[in-house]
Amino acid sequence: MTKTVFNNVTIFDGSGAAPFQGSVLVDGARIAQIARDGRDIEVADARTFDGRGRFLMPGMTEAHTHFSWNDQPTLSAIQFMPPEEHILWCVRVAKRYLDMGWTSAIGAAAAKARLDVVLRNSINAGDFPGPRYLAGSQELTTIGGLGDNTLPHLPFEELSFGTVCTGPEEIRRAARMFIKYGVDHLKINLSGEYIAGIPAELSPFSEEEIAMLAAEAKRNGKRVAAHARSSESVKQCVRHGLEMIYHASFADEEALDMLEANKDKHFVAPGIGWLVRTCFNASDYGVTPEIAEKMGYKRELEVAAQTLSKMHKRGIRILPGGDYGFAWMPHGTNANDLQYFVDYIGMTPTEALVAATKLGGQIMMRPDELGLLREGFIADLVLVDGNPLENLSILTNPDRIALVMKEGVIHKECKDIRPPSAALHIADDNRPFVDEGVRKAMQ
């Protein structure tokens, strides 16, 4: 078995404890030994790296991933990509994530029915490099809901972004179809989305429809993820046991109480980067700050900052990721979320990194072997030039991701792989810009 030693590194183990100087031995796919107090590990048949004090941390988990979003400015531009080109796109993007230190990912919905499943299977077979991946279904929506792009003069429902369902039996059929295809979990759009012309606070599904989805998922041992911006949709997630809640911007006090009472059952991946970058970074694609405010995104960002801050204080699990893959927030820039967690939610940099590592192991359903740098755990490791706890933006710079290891295999140990540029909206202090209205909402 291959052995690798990292000597003279600053170890962040993902638990939230302070980093320490030490060394790490990887034997095969797992971490075999950790030495503290700056002691080197000597193994004759191991490949040995002198870390020169670099920051060694667990691989990160992206909890709200859309690999098939193709860095375009509209949902239609994503959906109309032919399937042959689309799967090739997904393969390239999966590698981009691994290059940037994301060693695990949750598929939050595929643009076409089997894209996530085929990609996951190819990664697992070793055909292409990519994160450890849990595949999602296409989005389940209803007539007039987010993802219903059918046109009245065309009978082709296949052109719709989501799978359109009305009534419990259509939900049952769609769920069984995706389970047949081999998804790890199902996705449903329980609320609207402003950019699609549907109010974010709309909750279009009936209790009976959601109950049917939950029952089919449970019967088949699958989890459910939900696009849930409205307060009512968050409550629906808790009432029906839908484990992964995406967005949750408008959760009211009752919804927060329900989440807190069930915080060991749910994860929230808010996709706050979507709100920030749509408000401030989408002008080149026709969404100026004025247009974003008119749509409702500035108000949502203000409300979400306050809501998520309350969630964090209540101990509800909040993870990074969400809706990267649009033109103004391309794949590979996902680590922007970590600074947004600090600036908008009130996390410390350490808490933001714990959310990306330790909590990632939990949402991947492998908390005893993923997400922490500990002896016996799977060797998903990232070696970083610089200290992210002092400057989280380091993790958005491909030149600073010096080495990436997944399951004991070194994927990247060079600095010549760079995702498309997406400049941060920064203030003079080199930190992401926080709008004054949002700042007041957080107080």
Molecular structure report:
By secondary structure, this protein is α/β, with parallel strands linked by helices. It has 2 domains: 3-59 and 367-412, Urease, subunit C, domain 1 (Roll), CATH 2.30.40; 60-363, Metal-dependent hydrolases (TIM Barrel, Alpha-Beta Barrel), CATH 3.20.20. It has helices at 75-79, 83-99, 115-124, 168-181, 207-219, 231-240, 253-261, 272-280, 289-295, 297-313, 336-345, 349-356, 358-363, 436-442, and strands at 3-11, 20-27, 30-36, 47-50, 55-58, 60-65, 102-107, 132-134, 136-141, 163-164, 185-189, 223-228, 244-247, 267-269, 381-384, 401-406, 409-412. Strands 1, 2, 3, 4, 5, 15, 16 and 17 form an 8-stranded mixed beta sheet that branches. A 6-stranded parallel beta sheet has the order 10-9-11-12-13-14, covered by helices on one side. Strand 1 (3-11) and strand 2 (20-27) form a beta hairpin. The termini are far apart.
